[in-house]
TrEMBL record:
Biological classification of the source: Bacteria, Bacillati, Bacillota, Clostridia, Lachnospirales
Pfam families the UniProt entry points to: LytTR (PF04397), Response_reg (PF00072)
An MF annotation (GO) of this entry: DNA binding
Organism: Pseudobutyrivibrio ruminis
Modified residue annotations for 4-aspartylphosphate: 57
The protein's name in its UniProt record: Stage 0 sporulation protein A homolog
Gene3D superfamilies according to UniProt: 3.40.50.2300, LytTr DNA-binding domain
Domain of life of the native organism: Bacteria
Alphabetically ordered keywords of this record: Phosphoprotein
Record has Phosphoprotein as a keyword: yes
Keyword Ubl conjugation: no
Record-annotated Response regulatory domain positions: 2-120
Length: 237
């Protein structure tokens, strides 16, 4: 999951980043934190990348947090938005923008833990989806339905359990960024990503999938990847 921290005061950005990274390690959920010192700086990158969670300070010069949040909401409704402030006078504005929560400064790690735990509970794995642009039409694809993702030139072939394939202009890294913290997906070889829920069995250095497809594991990483798959299967029995 990508996390953005927007605050004009570096001390609060640093403290929150450290808290989130500590909780990320303790919960074994990958949370990648990026800091921004102003609303315009944050808004300027939204055309390039998506954030799953946004901690937004309300009182900032040039563009306050409410205005920055309005611009965020013009681009996406899916982001979990948490406002931060030293006062409590902006609840109406905050919740009109579908804020998930409201954190009063100075915040504690216990409070941030509460917020992140609630976000994780509100993000069921089976409801997670990505939007793929194929020509003029955006296709909504649930992550649970993707069996494998393979590279074909500058495109990805996204193979689904209904037997269909979507061809989109993405890199493997961009797909993993879209999938966020979904632990089902693993890159087993260059340009080959699989959903571990659809593994039928392992045999030597090959992975046999439920749809009869077979993928080779990178020769240098057979032991490492085989163990990752076994660990995943054991924890999800």
């Amino acid at each position: 999951m990508r996390v953005a921290v927007i605050d004009d005061e570096s001390i609060f950005r640093m403290q929150l980043k450290m808290m989130v990274e500590k909780l990320s390690a303790s919960k074994e959920i990958p949370l990648e934190v990026e800091e921004f010192s102003s609303g315009p700086d944050f808004i300027s990158v939204l055309s390039e990348r998506r954030f799953d969670i946004v901690f937004m300070d309300i009182f900032m010069p040039n563009m306050d947090g409410i205005e920055a949040a309005k611009k965020l909401r013009e681009m996406t409704e899916r982001t979990f938005l948490i406002f931060m402030t030293a006062s409590e006078g902006h609840y109406p504005d905050a919740f009109s923008l579908h804020a998930f929560d409201y954190v009063t400064k100075p915040f504690t790690i216990e409070r941030i833990n509460q917020v992140l735990t609630e976000i994780i509970e509100h993000t069921p794995m089976d409801a997670a989806f990505i939007k793929l642009s194929a020509g003029p039409i955006d296709e909504k694809v649930y992550l649970k339905d993707i069996i494998s993702v393979t590279t074909d030139g500058h495109y990805l072939e996204i193979n689904k359990d209904d037997g269909t394939t979507s061809r989109v202009r993405l890199t493997s890294g961009e797909f993993l960024d879209l999938a966020g913290a979904d632990k089902r997906f693993i890159m087993v070889n260059r340009g080959i990503i699989i959903n571990m829920d659809f593994i039928h069995h392992l045999e030597g250095g090959d992975i046999y999938m439920d749809d009869k497809s077979i993928f080779p594991i990178s020769a240098r990483k057979v032991s490492e990847i085989s163990q990752q798959i076994k660990d995943y299967q054991f924890s999800n029995r």
